[in-house]
Amino acid sequence: MNKEKKGREITAKEPINPMIILAVIIILAAVATYVIPAGSFDRVANESTGYDIVDVESYHQVAQNPLKPFNLFVSLTLGLQNAAYVIFFLMIIGGTFKIVESTGALHAGLSNLVYKLKGRELLMIPVCIFIFGLVSATAACCEEYLAFLPLIYVVCVAAGFDSITAVALLFCSAAIGYAGGMTNAFTVGVAQSIAELPMFSGMGMRIGVFAALVVITSIYVFLHARKVKMHPELNEMREIDMKYAEQLDLKTIQPITGRQKIVLAIFALGFVAVAVCVLKLHFYIDEMSGIFIIVALLVGVIARIKPNEFATTFVEGCKDLLWAGLIIGMCNAVTTILSDANVMDTLIYYMGNVLNGLSTRVSACGMFVLQDLLNFLIPSGSGQAAITMPFMAPLSDILGVSRQTAVLAFQMGDAFTNAIAPTSGELMAALAICHVPYKKWVKFLVPLWGLWAIVALVTLVIAVSIGYM
Questions:
Q1: What is the DSSP string of 387-442?
Q2: Where are the alpha helices (DSSP H) in 281-377?
Q3: In the predicted model, what is the mean pLDDT of the chain?
Q4: CA atoms of 423 and 384, how far apart (whole Å)
Q5: How many other CB atoms sit within 10 Å of the CB of residue 2?
Q6: How far apart are CA 148 and CA 154, in angstroms?
Q7: Is 401 in contact with 358 (CB distance < 8 Å)?
Q8: How crowded is the C-beta side of 420, counted as CA atoms within 13 Å?
Q9: Position 454 confidence tier, pLDDT thresholds 50, 70, 90
Q10: Closest CA to 28 of 72, 60, 83, 81
């Protein structure tokens, strides 16, 4: 009897699989197609930008098109297809990562890094947040960090931190990078194109936002990591981390060989090439995938990996991120369901109406809140820009808010919600990789998210006051 009771207690403590959370959200989206009236805006193609312009006065209800019961299951397939470019990109990164890992270069490099930082491990918190945040702000990296996460996980646990710190170092950094995105082509670039603004204009304000967020986030994560390191008894993730995280043996550290140094250099240069090519040559997913394939091949040649071994290892790496792709597909299914049922325009219309009649400062802050809410339904940054900015840009004209401010409200609303929304595929995949229960992540992030929101609201008030253009 006691054994049965003990078994039940253990089962109850197991974290909920992210796929179950997303399955519930998909069902709720399906139910919403029966409850929320279907509607649509008239759209006119803008040949100069390539995006449709929405007539904000043209909203009209259309015939209800609720999701058929069978199509609830089809929606997952459609979600996977719509997100295929991201999913296959992740698989290629996973394969490349596995090739590099198989050389032993990453393990040797990490072991030596942790050993050299002994006693000063906390210094890597602000450094990582600044570097990863800057890469996101300029080269729009986010999904790519999933490949780094297993390494950061191992390093954080070896340094005396926890898995929550590991997730925060990458995905809080990505959030603040997107919020203060200076040359982020996927959010700022798309949004400014739709709003008919000069590409990457108004950068000074965004640099200020990024700097403020880096300081706040670094201090918050630093204090959390220090608490966990100095007081292990307060580490709620300790047992889980000891069970799942690979342990670095710092007592038998081997020096990095010359060949491993070359491998690490090629791996690092691959990411530099991605950042430069995105900014200078406007590379996107396909071209970035090509760069990582080249990196994998070069590493294979330098490490003298046999063709059969190379192919097998690469496939294993792809397999490691396949389930992350399934999660991203499930997130995309939510957007697909609401869009196909003509519910998305209705949600945008009624949310936009809430802003009418408000002062310009309150309207700007309302745009931020509106984008936060919409991001639960449309977690893709470029996707949200393509769907909401054709509406928000002309709406900002009516409200007396500059289009540059509307873009700023969009990018901060999109960025911050991605760090907490259960419909964010990258976040849910990251939590699953590090075995962090969603509830514990929310508990950690809510205070920081509140600080981010304060920065956003203050920034928008300033933007309106100075006539930010």
A1: HHHHHHHHHHHHHT--HHHHHHHHHHHHHHHHTT-TT-HHHHHHHHHTT--HHHHH
A2: 285-302, 307-320, 322-340, 344-355, 360-377
A3: 85
A4: 13
A5: 6
A6: 10
A7: no
A8: 19
A9: very high
A10: 72
